[in-house]
Structure formats: structure tokens, C-alpha cells
Input
Amino acid sequence: MQTYELTLILSGSFDEKKIKEQLSKFEKLVKDSNGAITNREDWGKRTLAYPIKKNLEGVYIFYNLVLEELRVNPLARLLENDDNILRHLLVKSNTSSTGKVQKIEKKVEEKKLSLKIADKKAKKKVVKKGKKKS
Output
């Protein structure tokens, strides 16, 4: 697991409801890819230096993420293909795995272990049902 920093720029014409929808959609993507969000900062609406997709303003959101390295490229590809995201910047963070990140890594490993155990129990039940006495 590695820490990353992500900055998103959404269209400045979005209302609060649309912004919340986009952010919850993104946060669900991170959680579905066995990642975690350690910090989120809303930087608010700012004037862009130049028009992007005919937008003069953008809403800036900054995230600190913990992701497996294999999950970064698919996530970046999804961000690129989302028309509601004007720009994004995803970079590997220089911070080492300390404190909060280690707790998150531990939770992810525990979740994986519990899923494996549940899968084994389900397979045993299927095998026991298949071995009925005649």
C-alpha cells in the first residue's frame, strides 16, 4: 500500500448536490478498489487561469489516499474518462507508511482475511450438502 495525493477540479457551475454526487461516486471507487481516503480538503471555487471545457471557474478538492499500486492506473483512467472532472492530478506522496496509513493497511488485510475465511466456510457448506447419505 502506498500513499497518494489527488487534486480534482470539478466544474464551477455545479451546485452543491451535483458536487456531493461526484465526490461520493469517486470515494466509492476508491473503497471498491481496496483503498482508503485518509484526508479530504475542500478548497472551494476558484477562478481558473484559462478556460477548461468552456469553464472559467472550478471547484477544487484535495485528497490523501492509500492505494495498492496495481489499482492506481485503473483509477486514473476512470478519472480521465469522467466528463464532470475538468482536471486531476494524482501523485505518489513522499510520506512513509506511518500511523493512520498503517491502521488502514491493517484493516484492509483483516478484511481480506475475513473474506477468505468466509469463502472457505461457504465452500465447506457446499461440500457437506453434496455428501448426503443415501
Q: What stands out?
A: The CA atoms of residues 36 and 66 lie 5 Å apart. The domain at 2-95 is CATH 3.30.70.60 (Alpha-Beta Plaits). Residues 100-130 form the longest helix (31 residues).
